[in-house]
Specification:
Elements (H helix, E strand, L loop, with lengths): L4 E5 L3 H13 L3 E5 L2 H10 L4 E5 L7 H9 L6 E5 L4 H9 L4 E4 L4 H14 L7 H4 L8 E4 L2 E4 L4 E4 L2 E2 L4 H11 L8 H8 L9 H14 L9 E4 L3 E4 L7
Parallel strand pairs: 1-2, 1-3, 3-4, 4-5
Antiparallel strand pairs: 6-7, 7-8, 8-9, 10-11
Helix pairs in contact: 1-5, 2-3, 4-9, 7-9
Length: 242
């Protein structure tokens, strides 16, 4: 994908250079930023298909950069950090990061995660190459009060469009595509995050909680995304055939 553009922001030059070299070997176009302020400047003047952010950068940190990005775009975000505490992972996921890796990491795993995110976000991409991708699922799924366009990746509730992050859209799409079917956290992680390794339950739980907060009328008593205690989650909804 020669037209796919990726922004890498990290204050560690060795990491920036290493990630850039390996991404460019995969024919991605890569820009690098030395801190959060420069990352925001790059993002404001260019269009990117994926962003790799270091959590701890001087001045404007990765948390703030991710917030800025999420206010403007659903572009997939991969967070990198030296911290390995559960709280940091939750913070990253809560602000809209789609994946999370701790340092030190394998550069080959970084590339694998990038490819997985790109596969999952093809329909959400911004580059000319991604925009030209034809999806084989042009259908619209309608439930009583909730509509999801599986081609355009848009969601409306009671006629009002709901802004969701890329990962939230993927998670909802997977669930609505398998109504009434119960999935464990591990199964959801494998299918939505495209990985067999689930580090902890919080990854899925945080996204389920965020998704409920956005689409459910009463998140504490969900109508659509229901918990099956001791097993996992399922999507329940009455189809609207009109």
């Amino acid at each position: 994908m020669k037209n796919v553009r990726i922004l890498v922001a990290d204050d560690d030059k060795e990491i920036r250079d290493l990630v850039k070299i390996y991404l460019e070997r995969e024919w991605y176009r890569v820009d690098t930023a030395v801190d959060g302020e420069e990352a925001i400047a790059y993002f404001e003047r260019s269009r990117y298909d994926l962003v790799i952010l270091d959590l701890m950068m001087p001045g404007v940190d990765g948390i703030e950069v991710c917030r800025v990005i999420r206010n403007r775009s659903n572009v997939p975000v991969l967070m990198l950090t030296a911290k390995d505490h559960e709280a940091d992972k939750i913070v990253g996921l809560n602000i809209g990061a789609d994946d999370y890796m701790t340092k030190p990491f394998s550069i080959h795993e970084v590339i694998a995660r990038v490819k997985a995110l790109m596969r999952r976000f093809l329909v959400l991409g911004s580059s000319s190459e991604l925009d030209s991708v034809h999806r084989a699922e042009p259908n619209i799924v309608k439930f009583k009060g909730l509509i999801m366009d599986l081609q355009k990746y848009t969601v409306t509730r009671d006629g009002e469009e709901i802004p969701l992050t890329g990962k939230e859209l993927q998670l909802l799409k997977f669930l609505v595509s398998h109504p009434e079917q119960v999935f464990t956290k591990t199964q959801l992680f494998r299918n939505v995050w495209d990985s067999d390794y689930l580090e902890d339950d919080n990854t899925v739980m945080v996204h389920i909680r965020k998704l409920r907060k956005k689409i459910e009328r009463d998140p504490s008593n969900p109508q659509w995304i229901q918990t099956v205690w001791g097993i996992g989650y399922k999507f329940v909804g009455e189809k609207d055939e009109t």
